[in-house]
Amino acid sequence: MNEQFRAAVAAVYGHDPARRQAANIWLDAFSRTPEAWGCALSLLEHTSNASVEQRFFAANLLASKTRSDWAGLDPQQRSQLAEAFGTTLRNMLLPPGALSPSAAVSLEPVLLERVARLAAAAAALGGLATAERHLTLAQELATAAQPMLGSAAAPEANRSAGEALLRCALLVLQQLAEEAEALDSVRRKALLAGPDGLGGAGGLAAQRPGVVALTRDVVASAAGWGTSVGSPGVSFPLLLSAVRCLSAWVWLDESGYADGGLSSGALQAMSPGLLPSALSLLALPPSGPPTPSPLATSQAALREQQHATSLYAAVSELAAELLGSGSRTAAAAAGGEAAEVAAAAAAVDVLISIGRPLATAAAAERAAEAAAAGGGSGNGGEVGAALAALLAWSRVAVAVAERNAGGLTSGPGERAVQLADCVVGAWSACPDCREVAEVCADYFLAVNTVPTAERNPALTAPLYSALLPHVLRAVSYPAGFQDWETEVEEDEEAFHWFREQQAADLLETIWGQCRTAMVSQLVAEATSTGPGGAAAAATTAHGGGGGARGPHVSDWRRVEAALFCLRAVNVPVKAAAMGGRAGALDNAQAAATSAELQALLGRLFGDICSPSGRVAGLLVVPWVCLAVSRLIGEYAAWLGKTQDAPLQAAMGLLIHALSVPTAAPAAAQAFRNCCVRGADKLTSDLRVLTALATAAMAVVAPPPPPGGGAGAAVLLGLEERSAVAEGLSRLASGLPAEAAVDAACGLIAPCVSRAQSVAAAAAAAGGPLSTATLAALAAELGLMTAVVRFLEPPPGPHRIPPTSSSSSPSLRPGAAAAAEDHPALRALQVAWPVLSAVAGEPQCQTDPGVVEALAELYKCSLMSTKLAGRPLLPPLIGAMLGVLRVRPHAAVLECLAAVVELFGEVAHSGETRNAQIAALDGCIQMMGALMANLSAQQQASSGAPAATATSPFPSDCSASELAAAFFSLTDRYLVFARDLLMTGQGAAALPALLEWVCDVIVSMREREPVAAALSFLSHLLSAAARLAAEETSGGVGGSGGDGATAAETRARLDALFGRCGPRLVHSLLVCGTDTCPPQLMRPLAGCLMGLITLADAGTVAAPPPGVVSEPPPISPGDSELRRGLLGWLLGSWQLPPLAGLIQRGWLGTGGEHALLFTSLMLRGHYLQADIARAFATAPGAVAPTIAAANMRQLPRGRLDALVTDFFRLTRGEADADVLLAYEL
């Protein structure tokens, strides 16, 4: 077996794909067998002569089996394996015989790390004795390293070998601690605290002081600060191993709750000065010439830089864990909170002492990098060692500030001011480095959590005012930026995340401290013209923002950054400028602030909207145009409410920005915002508004060319066009009645003209309509929808106009008279010829894009006009049914559902009633065809013979989408037009509807169709139950459409549920056990409860209302539902697929859990004797409970919980104990 295993592993690393695949399959199966332990161990031995790759494979296999199969081994096997793994590692590190320096240096790091990890995992899992043997190996390695390290005069080979052995010792210790921490809480506590559990005195935690002492000695010697372990000299790999080992042992938690290990105060008490010494490692520069790391060319220099960078990151992580907000507090014996404060103070002293030198080194490194990049060389975007050290230092400063911002910033001491100055210096040293900006921003956000009154005065406005130039630089686009497709140094997502999240938060903080001074500085930055003026700025802008790195007064990037900063603080600035949320200036200071901000904003927007302004001169830059559009959108409220604000000029600028692809989306949204916020100002002058609307519509719906067709395609997307049209339609609704009608017609006329032009060009070309033509028609319909959606009628009473039987809603005098009152109806009169032509065109009826747009337009028209839209119903329903017959679409059903919701209550007679009945009939025919098609497909998939070949259902929507839309429609009939569905032709379709409900809930797993079907069924059951209470009334809902009385309708429903009840009960149970989404269990419980409630209403011996008594017995006079429900429930569990659950034993012996669930659900509704009698012959039948329990029905909330828990049980997601509580 060993040979076969070795051959398979060799094949895995071979070059034959077929053999490699076969070997992988065999090894995957073999790795699960007990023989795999011995074969892998044999291959891992150094005497096996296997390659490093093959030995690595064996170590991986053993590590995987150790984690997965350890619990299944007996104690002897565990001990033997742990001993074998430890011996293998020992033989690698301390081979028998004399240890030569070359052997120690030549150890393969990857294989060594994997074998050490394997041995550490087994040692941790094996218990305290095994772990202590593993510790002994580390001690032996450290001891063996001592003679090789010697002194400064020791040979280089011996020193390298000694360092290698010492790194191995630290690696063994580190991995043992990591594996111990990864154990479950019980094992971890037993291993770390020992059998007695007394504070770790007898466990692995007792060894922590010795490990900490070893790492302290290593840090001191490797950093050149002492000679405890060896001669002085900086060794970054050894320092990295020591810091990682220290981190692992610091984080060890013997409490068993995994809430952290040592605190900074406890570490300080255990090893005074260790944490400051570790922080001082950040100031160690890599060895070699003073050339900055990005210019290092030799492999040795690059490795040195990588080790240094890794060391800085490890120190930062260790210090952040010890000093940050998530760290523990020292125990009282170790000094408590006072020890933590002292440790933090010592750390701050070190940070202050090394902060400025680190910033200076990082600045020099960045300058050298820039010079090298200009000369064609560089580091390829990698972070240099000096920058890595500065980043690590900054993260530690943030951790200290987040842990104790109050203690750091309060009081008269200068330590906090000095640290803040160091952080500012770090940001200044690398102004173009986003990583530094992110960390520094976090620091100042943490400082700002302390109330201003409690801070040192130097940490208030003066500090934050000095930050603003750095923020401006950090949020600026990269130098030479053209677009994101050509930008290679900056990541677009990270750049925008920093601007919109961290920078925005910091800017609000700066506003809180500086207020008007900040706005004044930003406005000056955006509007002040430097050397060369606006013309020079525009010249720079035409170059796309190119040029050398570094700020320049005419650089568009600085202007764009200032505009962004002003946008980021728009909420507090607007509130202060406009007098707060209530518009009141409650004191003189607030009034003065408001006046100053009004002047500053006036200056800003005057410059933006003035052709001679600096910002206006930069609008040729797409990114400045984008920033201006966003700024106008955010300050729309100020522009709309301030008397002298240039609102109209700003909107003209936005119309121009619509032609700039980069800025168009933001400009469209800003235009809509201005229309909403500035409606009073814009509607005060009708001529100005007309000119504005004409200019805007010329952009979003330009006139078609003389030859017809779409012409020069509109560059704007439909979303942007719709936003502009929506804003203008909102303005039209605010005009007087006659002007509103004219404005509405003027807005929709360009869309109609373009649609007519497209259709005419297609007709002239002949042949079928192209995809582009259909897409153009859909876009114009979408734009018409945006126009109509928010057109509101003028104020005053409205009459309900009569319906129209013609194909156009404008042909009857009543409709025309009503249309004069509503701008939407007049706009639809303009568009109706085009809409009718589109709705009647066969190719348009089969295009999903056109159908969706047309249905959405019709629906929005109804929602806008409401009851005034009755003239639309006959032609609208006729058009939608025409589409439904050709190619059904869910959007059509949603439109018809809106008709029912709006007009169901007035559909008692006349054409409105007839139109809705026709809509219901058409939808029922469509659903019948769909369900027949699905049934045929299921038969074909199951192999059953079919009468005809099955073809796909002719629809662009899925069956689940159509089913969801259909049941949503019928649900609306039940809620808003109940008599249309429960009497006459609608009642004749109810049996088919119930059959389709059953089909949908057992065959579809999507949430939408199941939710719609359950909602329809629930409302149908509720309506039937209400009818039982209304039996003495004269009709259904007050006026039965066909003269049926409540008693007749109830009898019809009783017969319906008596006929469909068995399948309905079975389908609900199947749905709960299989197809029902978990979030729909409550609606499913509602349907089951609805059936039980309707059965209760079918008894002839019901007690008087309000009287609590025993449930009446089943009698021959009861409804068929009440008489049959018990048998249907029992029979359902004997039919597939429910019977399979009982056969597999998932529901207890003989289905006892199912019978218990049924009896609990029916408790209080049926006599327990009737329940016991019905289930007497069933296996696992439940015995009747006490009489008092028979009378208590489960409350609705408990019933919902019972249904959910039981069906979780049937799905294997819970055990039988979940039902116990419901028996109490």
UniProtKB/TrEMBL annotation:
Name recorded for this polypeptide: Importin N-terminal domain-containing protein
UniProt domain Importin N-terminal: residue ranges: 24-80
Coiled-coil region(s): none
Extent of Low complexity compositional bias: 801-816
Recorded superkingdom: Eukaryota
Region feature (Disordered): 794-816
InterPro entries on file: ARM-like (IPR011989), ARM-type_fold (IPR016024), Importin-beta_N (IPR001494), Importin_beta-like_NTR (IPR051345)
